[in-house]
Amino acid sequence: MDFKQAKRNRKLDRWVIIVLLTSLSLSINFLITKFNASIDLTPEKKYSLSRESLALLNKMEAPVDIVITIKNDNQLPKVVQKLLLDLELLLENFEQESTKHVIQVHHINVDTPKIKGDDLQKYNITEPNLISLHSPNRGQKIIFRYQSKESTNPYDLSQSFQSSDANARQLIWESGFYSDWKETGQGILEPKVFRGEQVIIESILALVGPKKEKNVAYFTRGHGEASPTDFDGDTGFSEFRRIIEESNLDVTTIDLSVIDSIPPNAKLIIIAEPKGIFLDKEIANIRDFVNREDGSIILCIDPVSENAVLDNPVFGLRNILREWGIRCHDMLIHDGNLANFDYFSGAYYLSTYPSAKSHEIIKPLMEKEFRIFSSDCRPVESLSSSKSNFISKELLYSSRDSWALSGWAKRKKPYDKNRLLDIEGPVPIITVSEKKFKKKKSKIAVIGSSSILSNKNLKRNTGNSFLCRNIIRWVNEDVDLLDIPPSKLDRYTITMSDDDFKNMTYLSVIIPALVVALGFFVSWLRKEL
After folding, report:
1. pLDDT above 60 for 493
2. Which of 98, 102, 71 lies closest to 84 in space, CA to CA?
3. What is the distance between the alpha carbons of residues 469 and 240, in angstroms, rounded to a whole number?
């Protein structure tokens, strides 16, 4: 037997196997590049569109092109690069899903129009740093505009200092793509929740979804109410206005005392933190609006102590609320347990939900165990009965340690519980009501603390923001959007010095090299021995 020939054959066999395995690997990789699909193996399906989103996408009435003209490079602030990365993963799902109308994503560099000339001519896209939606028949909608600007001079006292990175964070925060911003150890705000799926879905439906005749939300004025144009960081309602506009509703104000009837384009009347009594004419307009015009109301009302107001409960709106199965007590909720308050801000935590069948507004918040931040609260109770034409449900309660104080303005601290007149906790704070007949679209939501929808709490707390959006969607009949929860981001940060980075780099090169050298040495020993 020719051992040399056998040895050569074994070597040849090895090389043939190596060539075949390499060819197979290259072929598989080539086929994978041609197969545009992905499989989400995460238990919670973090990188897939929810069933609710797919149902909403089938309501599209025209195709949509999602155009991104932001050039992704290392010169962009890190937070903008993070947004583009998260959107890239999300938009792949929008393209791959089989929907009624096609959704396409385009990354366009407007500085080189020859590359994408057809797309630029079709939509006349010339502006860089945009994320926008386009439809041939419905026009366009800008989702995000990144306006880069040079950092201001910190030594120039005539202008406030803002770095380019801080400017980018502010723009992304205003866009609503992220929420639950938390300060890191380095004093930098980082988001914990990605809302890209919600923002894209809402924008698509606003552009190519079914058109609505009633599309205006009116804030009442003339009674000391909060204004939708108040940008105060704590007590303002500008963030509430922005959330309303996300639902494709225009926002303006109205004085009910100078009109004979509420305009026909009104979808929603918002009475935010009133301090004065409504006139009989205004009450008649509101009653006609909810009973005859299929209009809806959101009432945000705080505890009051003025005698003039107490003589006209709920600022004159008690009878309307009673008709809809809601009772709003002129009481103050007191809680002596300090564990139910935020240590730093003093905000009161609301995290007690209904034990029975939950309402569609509050169900996703219960599942995620969100807390709602508030301040002084008043009871808002459901009076629903089987004989009523309305269905009212309580959504949120104070803690079990709390109780509602009657005549609280005349009582001295510390408060003693009056078991005859006070209401034992948990006390309902938010109640909603709607007509039993589904053909009637009127709805009423009463919130016993206006601070729940204030700028301070909507901006800093995901629970408040999520609750606010769900109430607006419920009123605006976007019920399918209620079950789209935000996605929590799994972010990991490694902090190291330059020396640590160099050592890690050296080790990542030296250790594999030593392993290879050891392999050659062992192979040589086996041949020699």
Report:
1. no
2. 71
3. 9
Q: From residue 80, how far is each of 71, 133, 185, 490, 495 by CA, in Å?
A: 10, 19, 20, 17, 21
What gap in Å lies between CA 249 and CA 17, rounded to an integer? 66
Structure tokens that stand for 210 in this block: 């079914």
Give the residue from 434, 457, 274, 458 showing the smallest Cα distance to 361.
434
CA dihedral 431, 436, 441, 444 (to 10 degrees): -20
State how far the Cα of 82 lies from the Cα of 64, in Å rounded to an integer. Answer: 24
Whether the CB-CB separation of 206 and 250 falls below 8 Å is answered with no
Residue type, 18: I
Q: Are 301 and 274 in contact (CB under 8 A)?
A: yes
For range 242-269, the mean pLDDT:
90
pLDDT at 413: 82
**pTM for this entry:** 0.66
Of 454, 339, 453, the residue nearest 399 (C-alpha):
339
Identity at 85, one-letter amino acid code? L
Six token digits for residue 160: 């406030």
Question: Strand 189-194 to strand 178-183: parallel, antiparallel, or no bridges (unpaired)?
Answer: antiparallel
Do β-strands 428-435 and 390-397 pair in parallel, antiparallel, or remain unpaired? antiparallel
3-state secondary structure 127-187: CCCEEEEEECCCEEEEEEECCCCCCCCCCCCCCCCCCHHHHHHHHHHHHCCEEEEEECCCC
Look at residue 240 and tell me whether its pLDDT is greater than 60.
yes
| Amino acid letter, residue 388 | S
pLDDT (average), residues 256-267: 91
- Give the pLDDT mean for 483-512: 66
Q: Given pLDDT bands bounded at 50, 70 and 90, which one contains residue 158?
A: very low
Q: Specify the higher pLDDT residue, 456 or 185.
A: 456
| Dist CA 336 CA 425 (whole Å) | 12
Q: What angle do CA 81, 85, 90 make, to 5 degrees?
A: 145
What pLDDT does residue 154 have? 53
Cα torsion angle, 85, 89, 90, 92, sign: positive
CA distance 256 to 258: 6
Look up residue 433 and give its amino acid: S
| pLDDT bracket for residue 298 (50, 70, 90) | very high
Q: What is the mean pLDDT of residues 27-40?
A: 69
DSSP at 490: -
| Positive or negative: CA dihedral 452, 448, 238, 358 | positive
359 DSSP assignment: P
* Alpha-carbon gap, residue 22 to 157, rounded angstroms: 65
DSSP string, 6-45: HHHHHHHHHHHHHHHHHHHHHHHHHHHHH-------STT-
CA distance 229 to 243: 13
Q: Across all residues in the chain, what is the average pLDDT?
A: 82
R_g of the chain, CA atoms, integer Å: 30
Which residue bears the tokens 């959704």? 103
Sign of CA dihedral 394, 397, 400, 406: negative
The alpha carbon of residue 373 and the mean position of all alpha carbons in its chain are separated, in whole angstroms, by 16
For residues 230 and 236, the answer to whether their CB atoms sit within 8 Å is yes
